[in-house]
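Hi C.,

You asked whether I'd gotten around to modeling the 193-residue construct. I have! Everything is below, sequence then structure, no commentary in between.
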Amino acid sequence: MVTPETKIKPKAKEKKKTFPKDTINVIRTTLRNNIELTGIADNKASVLLSLNAIMLTFAIPLVPAYSGQIIETKLFIPLILLAITCVLTIFYAARVLKPSNFNQPRDATNPTISSSPFFFGNFYKMNPNDYYNRLLEGLQNPDTVNAHLAQDLYYTGKRLGHKMAWIRLAFNIFTGGIFLSILTTIILLISDR
């Protein structure tokens, strides 16, 4: 006879050790936002780089043609300021556009987790069989998948932070340099009268 105590209890479902669906959606959204912001930073850097290259291209040929007047009125000072501004802005804008180093270190807090197989920079030099094996290995343990998602989010955000800092510096150099060049030109032209 079966009593309530002797009834076979159904096994409780084993909980997977993965992020909840809402958390994965937040991670995906954050990654997508970081990638879009990276594109915005790259576009701003391209505009700055092109603008400063054009300014240098037009300014350099004018210097030899009008060198007598430039030296006489001391306009070489704002021209030097402008050239330094353009070169520094181009340097930092190019740094924003430069591809990052793909040699990501392992997670120092968890040395058993290898670099993420989901980021192309970690596998672009692998042959297909090695990559397939690495991917299967990485997908077998839910904790490893979570760690790879977290790694990708971290490194994408870290790279975006560097890009934004460099583009901000490039804009500050550009606006400050242009302002100083114009101000110096005005002062020199007024004092020359």
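If it helps when you're writing up: The longest helix spans residues 142-192.

Thanks,
B.
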